[in-house]
Amino acid sequence: MPGERSGDGSSREGLPVVVTPTHVVTSDWFAMRIRTLREASGLTPDQLAKAIGRSPQSVRHFEARNRPINTAYVEDSLGGLGHGHLIEPYTRIVDRSKQAPLWWLDAIPKLTKSQKPPALEQLELLVNFEASAASLRIYAPHCVPDLVQTPAYTAALREFGEPPLGPLQASLLPGRQGVLAQNEPDVHLLLDDAVLRRAVGGPAVLREQLAHLGSLAERHHVTVQVLPSAVAAQAAAEGNFTLLDLAEELEHDPGAVFVRTAADWVHFREPAKVGAYRARWAALLRDALTPADSLATIGHAARELPAI
């Protein structure tokens, strides 16, 4: 029998989710971590560069995430900052990240960072973070989130307008959805009640989608909750977001937030901004129906749909 999920959406059954972060995500984490350690030591990038025999530009490139991390820089920078005890565990993390499966490599155009349009860069980051996530908390006020959409529901949404990089997004979606089954991250979905009644694609398409949500909720690592219409209207004004947490071995990682806009995805990694979304998630969750009542509401919405 599935275990219970804690109030903040963390892993049910008390077992840690073991997911190997990708090299892109690991580089992003190390850039934040080494900058924090450097600033705590009171050194500037130029001073650290001088201490480890590297150019100031290379230090800035690593901290700005313009270069993927390598073990040589891990050793040099940590050693130069007096954190030699972190070299072995951090090197192990970096080495392991290079073995993480990257199912999307053949689908995403191979461009340099300077060549990538912003929408493509954000989409690639999203795919990397989803594949690296130990947990995902997803708030969807307007439609069922794409990670749990049925093909028919996705197709019906696209009739309202093709998103940026639409063909690429469509080709990536099955793989993104497959990560949920393969990695089994802790997934917590929070949907506004209106999402259950917005007949995207007509009754048959919505009925299938609602049945899929009910089926997903039976998985031990998935929770689905509904925000009642009485409180959802105000919450929806602030829009959707996905809050992701990474493996615990990435020490002091603040998590990441992705927000979908009409133009592309926007992501946040700054601790204060991620913290603001954590607070918002907690506030939304306080007003949500229980998982059991949410499933009953989903079933009721499906039964209310007109027969074909």
Automatic annotation (TrEMBL):
Which ranges carry the HTH cro/C1-type domain?
Answer: 34-63
Indicate the secretion signal residues. none
SUPFAM superfamilies per the record?
lambda repressor-like DNA-binding domains
Question: Could you cite one Gene Ontology molecular function of this protein?
Answer: DNA binding
Q: Per its UniProt record, what PROSITE patterns does this chain match?
A: HTH_CROC1
Task: State the source organism's domain of life.
Answer: Bacteria
A family per Pfam: DUF5753
- Any idea what this protein is called? HTH cro/C1-type domain-containing protein
